[in-house]
Amino acid sequence: MQGADIRVDTLLSNSNLTPSLLEAVQALIAKLVNAIPTQNIPKAWEGTAQGKAFIAGQYIEQARSSVAANSLNQAVALRTPVAGLGAAAMVNKADISPMELMETLVNGRFQSPDWYTMISGFSTENLLREQNKMQAFKLWMDLQSFQQMERVEAMLATNLAMGVKADSAADLEVARSAAAKAGQ
Fold it and tell me: What is the DSSP letter of 27?
């Protein structure tokens, strides 16, 4: 797919990433998260106070970027085929991604008129069995949703912390200057 390494829809519109799409999506994530990496300083500078401050700044940058990378990498993981997942879930394809599994289960049951016709003839025991499968799927989806919300919360918290730091920087510099004058 042309431009796949610069378009986020490459990731979000596919439920299964082929090896070539996976490579493109990984390039996209690198561009989104750290398109122009901060260059390291020479080793001789690292021992100075300024060098230590620079390295600390690099660590802060890497920590903040890792929040975004984690979320994007999880989206990739959901779309990467897992060996035997389809076979274990008894679907018609042996190796599928978790996203494909979700779509298969939803499409094969809740969006299929044939499924409703089929379960209308089930015995009580088979209806309970089907209900257990749906409950297990719901529990799994709830876990996926909880984990996604944790990632969203981490991104929001990181963004808030960065905003607070940016908003307070000028005020703190004025206060620091006043304190320096008062301390002389």
Answer: H
Both 103 and 124 in one domain: the answer is no
3-state secondary structure of 47: coil
Domain count, the chain: 2
Taking the alpha carbons of 93, 97, 101, 104 in that order, is the dihedral positive or negative?
negative
Listed in sequence order, the residues at least 6 apart from 71 whose beta carbon sits closer than 8 Å to its beta carbon are 151, 152, 154, 155
Give backbone dihedrals phi and psi of 24, rounded to 5 degrees, phi first: -65, -40
Classify residue 101: in a domain, yes or no.
yes
Res 1 pLDDT > 70: no
- pLDDT for the residue 4: 85
User: Sign of the CA dihedral 108, 111, 116, 117?
Assistant: negative
54-96 pLDDT, tens digit each: 999 999 999 999 999 999 999 999 999 999 999 999 999 999 9
Mark whether 60 and 7 lie in a shared domain: yes
